[in-house]
Write a structure and sequence with these properties.
Layout: H1 5-10, H2 32-39, H3 42-49, H4 58-68, H5 81-87, H6 92-110, H7 120-152, E1 157-162, E2 166-171, E3 180-184, E4 192-204, H8 206-209, E5 215-216, E6 243-244, E7 249-261, H9 267-276, H10 283-314, H11 317-331, H12 336-352, E8 356-358, H13 363-369, E9 372-375, E10 387-392, H14 400-412, H15 419-435, H16 446-449, E11 451-459, E12 464-470, E13 476-483, H17 484-489, E14 491-496, E15 499-502, H18 505-520, E16 524-532, E17 548-557, H19 564-573, E18 577-581, H20 586-596, E19 604-605, H21 606-609, H22 614-623, E20 626-628, H23 632-644, E21 657-660, H24 664-672, E22 675-679, H25 684-689, E23 692-694, H26 699-740, H27 748-761, H28 783-817, H29 821-827, H30 830-859, H31 873-888, H32 895-899, H33 906-934
Helix pairs in contact: 6-7, 6-11, 7-9, 10-11, 10-26, 10-28, 11-27, 12-26, 13-26, 14-15, 22-23, 23-24, 26-28, 26-30, 27-30, 27-31, 28-30, 28-33, 30-31, 30-33
């Protein structure tokens, strides 16, 4: 009979002794079961899991598998691809395009004669909708790919002990909660497990924690450190020295462990569920949606007004309806999706030439809008290599003799040469070059003066290794290097100042203080010892590592990249605050941060983070630049609160956050950010979760990508703002004209043609230049700013539109047809009345194209156009071509008649040029006032 999950987990606590095992609620991301297992004796864990040293019986195994399921990370039930595909097209951005397509089809196909039908605009908009929806569908699908990549890392077999069966190899998926597993060197851990016994166990878990090397594991319960003001502290991932996590690898040693969590309940399983969750709305998504809503509202308000004004003043409601529908098409920047997509594609191409590969095209704007960059320390700030920073005697003074002994040990040992050995050899070679050593030896003759006699290889139990060498006089000596505590354990004396002294407790304490100071500076320290003529050749073993003389230390450092400090300074200048989120030791991380200009004061540790609410964490996170000893889910939480703005002055005023990482431990944080950034050498999970891939793990490369992102946004927003303001000015002018003119100021066909000519001219905007001052700080989408810009700059064109109306109505049209409008009405001369209206409409048609084009050049920069700031040659060429073509249309036989245009006299162009000068002057004055008032133009 199956027992409930609660019963299986708590049955043992009804037995004698259960009161000795206190439980507590977990607020950390490890979960209750793992925290209990880590902080309690193995006997209590066995009781909780209803198991024993001999393992589970087959009946209990079946019950556990039925209760918890197979040890596999199942994919969450997701919407069918067809449903997700359809849903990808439901957004304010695509809905406005669909509305435009319907309007365009109605005005260009339904309401016109068969020979005049033109569905091309509808087709183009349909293509725009397809591109937009497909991009969104692709973005939402990447989470499943990241989770699948994470799932691939856990597929193999393991050794399990079962009661009544004994040891045996079983597939990972058949491991059950409570099983006793055995692991040894090279094994992958099948499930989150509590260690029962260990023997020299070292585990590689850098993918989860970011720790640089293997971590030693023990079977003793973990003591949770108390945090001031928190009576119930949580356990950090790196504190779990007695827990084996799913997917980590045993580097050396062996152990037995009891399985605590399987499948989706494991730490990696919970991370995978985070990756499979629906992506949060990014800055770009929110910005496009808000702009689209503004455009929809603007269209819904203005078009009925135009309809009513024209219907009441002209009495022809059908013509008024057709005209208002044309206004609806013209009032919205029809090319918005094309310009946005082209800007993004152009940006992606430019970034590819700067070693930045764009996976998710929408992330380009997010990269430019980013004002907080979170990243790991190793490989980002540091060179991800080890150098020998100092070689010191026991008193902390530089001593070349220590380096020489260390070189002999590293050079002659035949085991696996690690990064520390390479660093020692490279430093010796560097010193040899400085000293001017001859070409016969790169190491000042050390490699030729000495010969190897014997060695005692490194092992993880001793954590040291020894080499015996003889010089050319026949004198032999044993040189040992390794972990400070282990080397001290075999030393009886110390040597400094040329004198050998007894290693007293006072000297031992002084040595450890010196080592602690070096550790605080972010250095990894190993000790060097030696003894002369240890014993006859050929009889050496680890038993000879005794009664040695400590001569000094080697201090190693993963040094900061040469470009790190410069890159952080450059990012700060560009308005991007760098925050370090690392799983590494706080002291080491702080030392590196201080060297590259990152403020390490107020460092926040993972153990402290769990004690804070989101509001408290947001306040701390705003002013904190270094977060250390974080778990993967803690990194994701920091990113989320930074984005949310919780607890900041001004609710909702969150940051645009980027996260740069390359390990499994970074995937959740990348997923939670506005833009996930990784490198081409990262693990598959990280690359699947990323939006941007750097071909070089360097913040300078990222800074170049940020600049390209801001250029992309700059060209997008200049099109939106200038076009919306220009269109608003046109609509405002139409309303004024409709109230006073006895005919429409422009036909519906002319209005649509004008919009088409202008939008074609704007297709070169993605290639435009962007002023340096615009690129100096992050920019985000702000729909309210677009409305304000439209209300300030739109009416400036209307001033000259109204002047054009007056000139055309009272001077130019009467001059061309030979009589003013009132006279023609009195005479009932309908032919000349039609000609009068045609001249008027042609004059405003041409003037509107000129003003729209020149206002684009005026509003693309805060500087003086054509003088202080020059548009790109592509934009200049295309807009000039658009103006010339529209100006020539009234003079083209056949075309002018079909469009309802007529030739204009030369006097018109003199007036037009005067108006253009006045308009550009007024527009520059207004934009300067606007920029001063609102802190910027675009």
């Amino acid at each position: 009979m199956l027992r409930s999950k609660h019963a299986l987990h708590t049955a043992a606590f009804t037995q004698k002794g259960a009161a000795d095992a206190p439980t507590r609620f977990s607020r950390g991301d490890l979960g209750v079961d793992l925290e209990f297992a880590a902080t309690h004796k193995v006997s209590y864990v066995f009781r909780r899991l209803v198991t024993s040293q001999d393992g589970l019986t087959e009946d209990i195994v079946r019950a556990q598998l039925d209760l918890h399921g197979k040890n596999v990370m199942t994919e969450r039930r997701a919407e069918a691809p067809a449903v997700r595909f359809v849903r990808s097209f439901v957004s304010p951005f695509t809905l406005i395009l669909v509305a435009l397509a319907i309007i365009s089809y109605y005005t260009n196909v339904v309401l016109v004669a068969p020979e005049e039908r033109d569905p091309s605009t509808t087709i183009i908009i349909a293509v725009m909708v397809a591109i937009s929806g497909t991009l969104r569908f692709t973005q939402e699908s990447k989470g499943a790919s990241a989770a699948a990549a994470l799932k691939k890392m856990v597929t193999t077999t393991c050794c399990v002990v079962r009661k009544g069966v004994g040891e045996g190899e079983i597939p990972f998926e058949d491991v059950a909660v409570g099983d006793i597993i055995k692991v040894s060197s090279g094994d992958m851990v099948p499930a989150d497990s509590r260690l029962v016994t260990t023997k020299d166990l070292f585990v590689t878990q850098a993918a989860l924690t970011g720790e640089g090397g293997p971590v030693e594991k023990f079977s003793d319960p973990v003591v949770v450190r108390r945090v001031a003001g928190d009576p119930n502290p949580t356990l950090a991932l790196t504190d779990c020295t007695n827990i084996l996590f799913t997917g980590t690898t045993v580097q050396s040693g062996s152990a037995t462990a009891v399985v605590v969590a399987t499948g989706d309940d494991t730490y990696v399983g919970r991370m995978m569920s985070v990756l499979q969750a629906k992506p949060e709305q990014t800055s770009f998504d929110a910005g496009v949606a808000s702009v689209s809503r503004v455009l929809v509202v603007f269209m819904l308000v203005m078009c009925p007004v135009v309809l009513v004004v024209n219907g009441l003043t002209k009495g022809d409601w059908l013509s008024a309806l057709l005209f208002s529908v044309s206004v609806a098409v013209g009032i919205t920047p029809q090319m918005l999706p094309v310009i946005v997509t082209t800007c993004l594609s152009r940006g992606a191409s430019a970034m590819a030439h700067r070693d930045v590969i764009v996976k998710n095209i929408n992330s380009i704007q997010n990269l430019g809008a980013m004002d907080v960059l979170c990243c790991d320390k190793t490989g980002t700030l540091t060179q991800d290599k080890v150098i020998l920073e100092r070689h010191l005697d026991v008193m902390g003074r530089d001593d070349d003799r220590v380096l020489r002994h260390a070189f002999l040990n590293s050079y002659f040992q035949t085991g696996l040469r690690n990064l520390l050995d390479v660093a020692v050899i490279e430093k010796t070679e560097e010193f040899s070059v400085r000293a001017g050593a001859g070409r016969a030896s790169r190491y000042n003759g050390l490699d030729t003066k000495y010969v190897k006699v014997d060695e005692v290889p490194f092992d993880f139990e001793r954590r040291r290794m020894s080499v015996v060498v003889a010089d050319d006089t026949g004198k032999t000596q044993m040189i040992t290097k390794g972990a400070v505590e282990e080397v001290l354990a075999v030393c009886a004396q110390v040597e400094y100042g040329g004198v050998v002294r007894e290693l007293t407790n006072e000297l031992r304490s002084r040595v450890m203080r010196q080592v602690s100071e070096l550790n605080d500076d972010g250095m990894r320290v190993i000790a060097v010892a030696q003894k002369t003529n240890p014993r006859p050749v050929g009889m050496f073993s680890k038993r000879d590592e005794c009664d040695m003389v400590l001569i000094g230390y080697l201090a190693f450092l993963d040094p900061p990249k040469d470009s790190a400090a410069k890159a952080i300074s450059r990012l700060a200048k560009d308005g991007v605050c760098v925050k370090i989120l690392t799983g590494d030791n706080g002291g080491v991380a702080a030392a590196v941060c201080r060297k590259v200009g990152v403020n390490a004061d107020g460092m926040l540790l993972g153990s402290e983070l769990d004690a804070l609410s989101d509001e408290e964490l947001a306040r701390r996170a705003d002013s904190t630049q270094l977060f250390a000893k974080l778990s993967p889910l803690q990194k994701a939480r920091v990113v989320r609160v930074l984005r949310s703005g919780a607890g900041r002055d001004g609710a909702g005023s969150g940051h645009v956050v980027g996260f740069m990482g390359d390990g499994i431990n970074d995937a959740a944080a990348m997923r939670a950010s506005d833009v996930g950034i990784s490198v081409d050498t990262a693990v598959d999970v990280a690359k699947e979760s990323a939006d941007i891939i750097l071909l070089e793990k360097d913040l300078m490369v990222l800074d170049r990508g940020i600049v390209e992102g801001r250029k992309t946004y700059g060209n997008t927003i200049k099109y939106i703002k200038s076009t919306v303001s220009s269109n608003f000015g046109n609509v405002f002018s139409v309303m004024v004209a409709s109230a006073f003119l006895p005919f429409l100021p422009m036909t519906a066909l002319q209005l649509l043609l004008l919009g088409l000519a202008y939008t074609v001219s704007c297709t070169a905007v993605p290639w435009d230049n962007v002023d340096e001052e615009f690129l100096s700080h992050p920019r985000t989408w702000d729909a309210r700013a677009i409305v304000g810009f439209m209300l300030w700059l739109g009416p400036t064109s209307s001033v000259f539109d109204i002047l054009t109306y007056a000139v055309m109505f009272f001077w130019l049209a009467p001059m061309v047809v030979g009589a003013p409008w009132a006279t023609l009405v009195t005479l009932g001369d309908t032919v000349r009345m039609a000609a009068f209206a045609t001249v008027f409409q042609t004059g405003w048609f041409v003037e509107s194209m000129w003003t729209q084009t020149f206002v684009l050049h005026t509003l693309r920069t805060e500087r003086l156009p054509f003088v202080q700031s020059h548009a790109s040659w592509q934009l200049t060429l295309l807009t000039a071509t658009g103006v010339i073509v529209v100006t020539l249309l009234p003079y083209l036989p056949g075309v002018s008649g079909a469009l309802g245009l007529s030739a204009l006299p030369a006097a018109y162009y003199g007036v037009l040029l005067a108006f253009m000068v006045g308009y550009l002057t007024l527009a520059n004055v207004v934009k300067k006032i606007y920029a001063r008032r609102y802190g910027g133009l675009l």
